[in-house]
Design a protein that fits this description.
Helix 4 packs across helix 16. Strands 1, 2, 3, 4, 5 and 6 form a six-stranded mixed β-sheet that branches. Strands 7-8 form a two-stranded antiparallel sheet. The chain folds into three domains: 110 residues, no CATH class; 134 residues, no CATH class; 130 residues, no CATH class. Strand 2 and strand 3 form a beta hairpin. The two termini are 21 Å apart. The model has no long low-confidence stretch (mean pLDDT 95). The chain is an alpha/beta fold. This is DUF2851 family protein.
């Protein structure tokens, strides 16, 4: 038994509302349980109860045992002087105010429905389950899950906002520079995301703007900062681009000492750093006002048009310098563009709108529900339990649920866990 379970039971009043009495057999009526307090002080504030015929307004403190009041030294803390009710699981000591009066005690276990305690024990029983409610998840109402996932999706956007705002601050509130950093990070995907972000951070965006007038110039700049010209190769294109970068390095006094070098190991060729950096260079060379376009565009098909980009011509027959392959234009795949919209465009739009004081909720919902669900181990597992993820909004919500609720045993804060605890 944990105290946060008692908080949950009291907050949502998961017990019969009639026939309640205190430990001293005084009739108790709960008008309002109060507001859950996440700061220092009593657990619930501004509660209202009726004891006998007397109406009380004040705070509620919750403990597993009554004696915890003294163990936590509340008797000497003025913040607890306005406690009107002590809610406990086990009553093992009388609690007194400074004036000697007894603080009424409500013994919660006397009124808790057996099924609630049984489900709580079941949810938090030790085992090898992928998540606590794995066996019950298939039977959860679909409508409830869908509403919960929408809420979790926006919770996930709020969390991503912290990273975005930090990057914006480092970019001196330059939104175009921020977009460049975010795109670099997501062009690197999971394997090279940190590396590509370090490349972006190693460059003042003014240098990027100067080089974006020529695709080869910008490609050389990005690959040079990535450290891809540090070895010697007998390849005409490699030599040409290396010369460009060497000139840029002197001209702009460039330094890549703190850049994390990208890796190729275990990557599929379409995701090689060479191709992704070339595609990024072409994108910026072709879209001189990329940030403004992204903010103004609202439909998914329009984003597909913006990112209809292929790597430079040399890469038609190469995945890496000096290694020839069959000729094939290296375009962005639809799934890659979807990932950019999910992980870069929508979070950026969300953050920008909040900064500008505008509401883009409907636009974000439309975009996130139009994109197909992501396909990874977590989403596959959820769908094997209950086919629920059809859109990116739902798959993002499921990722949020797994990482921040299931894995952290926060069932009491989850709509799914709540619905199981409230079942009759």
């Amino acid at each position: 038994m944990k105290e946060d379970f008692l908080h949950y039971v009291w907050k949502f009043q998961v017990f019969g509302a009639s026939g309640l009495t205190t430990a001293d057999k005084e009739i108790l009526q709960i008008i309002h349980p109060g507001s859950h307090n996440s700061n220092a002080g009593p657990d619930f504030v501004n509660a209202q109860i009726v004891l006998g015929a007397q109406h009380w307004a004040g705070n509620v403190e919750i403990h597993l045992k009554s004696s915890d009041w003294y163990a936590h030294k509340h008797e000497i803390d003025s913040a607890y002087e306005n406690v009107i009710l002590h809610v406990v699981w086990q009553h093992d000591a009388e609690i007194y105010r400074k004036d000697g009066s007894v603080i009424p005690t409500f013994i919660l276990k006397n009124y808790l429905q057996p099924h609630t305690l049984q489900m709580y024990s079941k949810l938090f029983a030790k085992g090898n389950l992928w998540m606590n409610c794995e066996n019950d998840f298939p039977g959860i109402d679909t409508f409830l899950i869908e509403n919960w996932l929408e809420r979790l999706y926006f919770e996930r956007l709020q969390e991503k906002q912290g990273f975005i705002l930090q990057e914006l601050k480092e970019s001196q509130n330059h939104w175009e520079s921020l977009l460049f950093r975010m795109l670099c990070r997501n062009f690197g995907l999971k394997v090279n995301g940190t590396s590509f972000l370090s490349i972006a951070k190693s460059l003042d965006f003014s240098i990027v703007k100067k080089c974006m007038q020529d695709t080869l110039e910008l490609e050389a700049l990005l690959m040079g900062q990535a450290g891809l010209f540090e070895k010697d190769l007998e390849d005409w294109y490699f030599s040409s681009q290396k010369k460009r970068y060497d000139y840029q390095k002197r001209k702009y006094n460039l330094d890549n000492a703190h850049v994390i070098k990208p890796i190729f190991f275990r990557l599929r060729p379409p995701n090689f750093p060479t191709l992704r950096l070339s595609q990024l260079a072409v994108l910026y060379a072709e879209r001189q006002n990329l940030f403004q376009e992204i903010i103004e565009v609202k439909k998914l098909e329009e984003f597909y048009d913006i990112f209809k980009v292929a790597a430079n011509e040399y890469w038609d027959t190469h995945f890496n310098f000096g290694l020839s392959t069959m000729s094939r234009k290296k375009w962005f795949s639809k799934s890659f563009v979807d990932l950019l919209v999910i992980n870069t465009i929508i979070p950026l739009k969300f953050c920008y709108a909040e900064k500008m004081g505008t509401d883009v909720t409907e636009e974000i919902i439309a975009l996130s529900t139009e994109i197909a669900s992501e396909d990874n181990k977590i989403i596959k597992k959820f769908n094997s339990l209950k086919p629920i993820a059809r859109s990116a909004q739902q798959s993002q919500g499921l990722l949020q649920m797994k990482h921040f609720y299931c894995d952290k045993n926060r069932c009491l804060h989850c709509a799914v866990g709540n619905s199981l605890l409230r079942r009759g």
